């Protein structure tokens, strides 16, 4: 139970911590000043959403997200959200590929070469299908968390831990709703694809509570650190580099590598969701379907990393509010617990 619970926990975190999150760009778009309460609310809401989605997936032994959407939205609306999820997974994986190209530019590699490298490795991973993806997440994500938290704690120590939480100045709490909603669709896509592999309720508790607490803690620490370098963020495509400028150059190289790996895990999650949904239409081995999607996505990466995030992420956050509300209401309306 514990092994599988941790495996699903790292799958959830790997889906979340991608180009937008690990770079700091996504957090900066939604949070910023007066957001401590918003991040606490996000932690609670995210935990509940993961638990509900996993509970429905386990009950219906789902292999892709349509059974989960049917339960939450009804058959008519689920068709609309089916299209939305496909578009979401497609466009956010484009963002991951663009992020992979932008990250490798710090090594003076051409943007296009970075995209080719990350795309090729995503395709290669799907030679082993689902097992390859979960194994990579279980290996990469703990390393990424340790390094990221270490960097942020060291930065706060350098600044004298100037973290404050004035309750009278928490006006940005609605950001918790849109930020959680933004991440709902990939969670449904990925967690619904493993419904027939969840054996015990304990796995769901470990995965949902563990991922919520870890992501909430990192988000709070990361956001507070970004506030300390707010004046420099506009100068960087990737806000994390505004923090790393206070460190030796080799630390920027190390974190660039880990950031790239985070982007990689989220790109694989996006492709995994697309493969799971389209198995009925696109026949052939998983790696060949992945190659088809990567080849289709690559031309769209020319729009640039930060432009894609600043336009698409807030838009999806608003559009996802309905399915987000449906997930929160599910245990109340159907008197279910997870």
Automatic annotation (TrEMBL):
It comes from Halalkalibacter nanhaiisediminis. InterPro entries: YkvI-like. The chain crosses the membrane at residues 7-24, 36-60, 80-103, 109-128, 135-155, 175-193, 205-222, 249-275, 287-309, 315-334. Keywords: Membrane, Transmembrane, Transmembrane helix. This is Putative membrane protein YkvI. It comes from the Bacteria.
